[in-house]
Specification:
Helices cover 60% and strands 7% of the residues. The protein has ten helices and three strands.
């Protein structure tokens, strides 16, 4: 099941009035494609109770995911002892190519590390801060034209959050960045934000 925003949630996000920072963050993440578990991984341990409260308050609704899982192949009839096993169906010549494609696709989808993902995450976090400094930093991160500029923007974002928010929130952001930042750049983030 995926979490979706109601009209009440969309209005509350526009008004920027009665919601906490965490509630706003969760509502932004509820785009009709992410499951409850996925949102909890992004936000942290307290997400479950906040999600429940948002559902009860009418800000969120649940919906079945759009694509149901593919049907299972029919089961082969049991082979009784003493009877010959049925011949296995011939595999088409393209089967090895298809298997290699499936493995490659799984590998590419298994990796959630990307600079583009970091950029989107950072811009979203900064937009939730509701300050001119945060907005300016969000624009700087969004418009970063190369890796160095983006990495410097991420470091500045972490420093900004450490100064302007509570320690737990800044630590959660750093932890998530370390999970999505490509591994070759982890040293930059770890060294400069420690």
């Amino acid at each position: 099941m995926v979490m979706i925003k109601t009209d009440k949630a969309r209005q509350a996000l526009r008004d920027r009035g009665s919601l906490s920072v965490q509630e706003r963050q969760i509502l932004i993440l509820c785009d009709g494609q992410r499951s409850r578990q996925e949102i909890a991984r992004w936000v942290g341990d307290s997400a479950g109770s906040v999600l429940d409260a948002l559902v009860l308050s009418g800000y969120l609704a649940t919906q079945q995911s759009a694509a149901p899982p593919p049907p299972l192949p029919p089961a082969a009839p049991p082979v009784l002892p003493g009877t010959p096993a049925p011949p296995s169906p011939a595999r088409p010549a393209s089967a090895p190519v298809a298997a290699a494609y499936v493995e490659q696709t799984r590998a590419s989808h298994g990796s959630k590390r990307s600079l583009a993902g970091c950029k989107m995450y950072a811009v979203g976090i900064l937009q939730m801060q509701r300050s001119a400094d945060a907005m300016a930093l969000a624009v700087r991160v969004q418009q970063a034209s190369d890796e160095t500029e983006l990495l410097l923007g991420l470091v500045d974002m972490v420093r900004f959050l450490e100064q302007m928010t509570n320690t737990g929130y800044a630590d959660n952001v750093k932890t998530h960045l370390r999970q999505i930042l490509p591994e070759q750049y982890l040293g930059v983030l770890n060294l400069q934000t420690a």
